[in-house]
Design a protein that fits this description.
Two copies of one chain form a homodimer.
Chain A lengths: L3 E2 L2 E4 L13 E4 L3 E2 L10 E10 L26 E11 L9 E7 L3 E4 L6 E2 L17 H13 L7 E4 L5 H12 L3 E6 L2 H9 L4 E4 L5 H8 L2 E6 L3 H9 L1 E9 L18 H4 L3 E4 L2 H21 L7 E5 L4 H10 L5 E5 L4
Helix pairs in contact in A: 1-2, 1-7, 4-5
């Protein structure tokens, strides 16, 4: 077979403020790959099926001299993220043609993994859509599950406030908390999302763009657990309405990713209310909780106990737009790029 | 015996910004007490020897409608704080005349405790100065000891940054950390205090008024533990120079007690560096650690392992000035009011 196009999405320029759908990343179809003859050197050739778009990717769009927990994207090179792929050739006995794998992949159609350490064969006995493995059954679901186990110290009857509740992490947290008997207050940025929050069990759900977060927490709180995906003014409202001894799980602060941070004026509450605040990265908790997660969570998704929304775009060309929408909160559920069918 | 004056210090007005040495509290000698005949109703009569002046008292100088962990001072009533006193009459079998007690007392010369629950007899086998029991052997020492045990997760060779290092809490933390084999960076607000920090073992000591905190932490860090007494710009510097997985022990934020809080711009580091931040009030940890503290710490003070500075003022009339100096950081060591000799 002659070479085929191996389209890619390249990091084009470091954004100031929000990413630009047309400039931050660019689609490139200049490369080809010969799927039959490309050297594997003992590795595997994977056809990428689904790529994930996540909020944290904004942090990788930085000058490479700035250190952070996750390596920077390099201008001129493909961006990368969590993915599901199909093994189409293999020289590694742990992977066979036809296996579906979850992996971390460059944004391109075909990837040769000479080192298969990133790859995990997905058995998918539950028959979930493959895209779920970059969402509620993948990194975002693990984020919710692992940190809740590690940091929530949740007790039945306590009150948790979950931000970005319609996203893949937030919606998983809401449903985990409800299953454990907590009262859930959840926020999102549209009426449509608020309806979804209610449908998955949130006791109090509101649109933070039209309601006053602090007033709602004041009425429905005080809160024992705060799941923070947004930071800024919402974190200030959570500090103002935290119960004594509340736990703050700091998953992200998207309000500060694309603009100047908000001036939080009540950090002193950390002392007087004896708050415990936990920043975390899911990979740190993986060895402790991954096994339990994969044993338990896909089954709960399959039987309908854990619901989720997905916002799928077709084709690598949509990547720039999807990245922009996730940073703006315009996506309606977990954002994924469907690169190919099988 | 005829009645004697029972001088008091009354809360006079809620301060805006820093307390005013002459207006926030006022000295009052209008009351008398008959020490021989005052009714005890089964309680004890205590002559107050020493009263403590602590930073946290600023939080009690608020409108009574504002809730906080510690009850507000009431305008027209005596202020109150930790104290050491001498039992001069007793109808309670657990206390005898001549006992020294640590207690929580109104700022006045004589106090009748009908309920003796606040009183603890001080055996003082170590023969410490009685004032130490409102300082390094009392609440501030317990603050350092208890929270270090509970939250530091300290390991030999790690680096801790201690603010307000010359104060009773900070100086205890420095010496606890040194004894456990940590490298200590400590700050204070004068050259004299910096000399004290060095004398008690701080590896790096600096005057935060003349040096750049972030630069010093950048050179001597990154820090694994941050003991925060000040908040604000210093907390921002600690966030900027925190090691991955660092623990922040939030003991106080005096920079925000008397003025608008500083705008901290790098809270996002909490997430990316997986920081753990612990606010606490020492009373919450008392039942867990008091026994070990009283068994161990006075002995370490007596044998010179734990050193401290004391800034003693003579007489209740000095209370307003002492309160002001503590909020301004002008005190040179633990601030105490010596009310009477025995």
């Amino acid at each position: 077979m002659s070479p085929v196009t191996n389209a890619r999405v390249l990091f084009n320029e470091i954004p100031q403020g929000y990413p630009d759908p047309n400039k931050t990343v660019v689609y490139d179809d200049s490369q080809t790959i010969d799927l039959d003859t490309v050297a594997l050197d003992g590795g595997v050739l994977v056809k990428v099926l689904v790529l994930s778009i996540d909020p944290y990717m904004r942090g990788k769009m930085r000058h490479p001299d700035v250190k952070s927990y996750s390596p920077p994207f390099i201008v001129g090179e493909p961006i990368s993220n969590f993915a599901v792929g199909l093994v189409i050739r293999s020289e590694n006995p742990n992977f066979k043609v036809g296996d579906h794998v979850s992996t971390f992949a460059p944004f391109q159609e075909y990837v040769v993994y000479k080192d298969a350490a990133y790859l995990r064969v997905l058995e998918n006995k539950e028959n979930l859509p493959w895209s779920a493995y970059v969402g509620v059954a993948g990194m975002p679901g693990r984020t919710a599950y692992h940190a809740w186990k590690e940091y929530s110290s949740a007790k039945k009857g306590e009150i948790v406030f979950v931000t970005a509740g319609a996203g893949p992490v937030g919606s998983a947290v809401i449903q985990i908390a409800k299953a454990e008997g907590l009262k859930v207050i959840a926020s999102a940025g549209s009426e449509e999302k608020v309806a979804f929050l209610k449908s998955i069990g949130a006791d109090v759900a509101f649109n933070y763009k039209t309601a006053n977060t602090s007033e709602i927490l004041s009425e429905a709180g005080p809160i024992d657990i705060y799941w923070d995906n947004v930071g800024g003014e919402t974190l200030e409202a959570a500090l103002a309405n935290a119960n004594h001894g509340a736990r703050f799980i700091e998953c992200g602060m998207i309000s500060a990713y694309n603009s100047t941070p908000y001036f939080i004026k009540n950090l002193i509450n950390i002392v007087g209310r004896e708050l415990k605040i936990f920043g975390f990265i899911v990979s740190t908790l993986a060895s402790k909780y991954d096994e339990a997660f994969y044993k338990e969570f896909p089954q709960r998704i399959a039987n309908g106990e854990i619901k989720y929304l997905e916002d799928a775009k077709q084709g690598l060309k949509e990547t720039g737009q999807a990245i922009y929408e996730v940073q703006k909160g315009l996506n309606k559920g977990k954002s994924v790029i469907v690169v190919a069918s099988e």
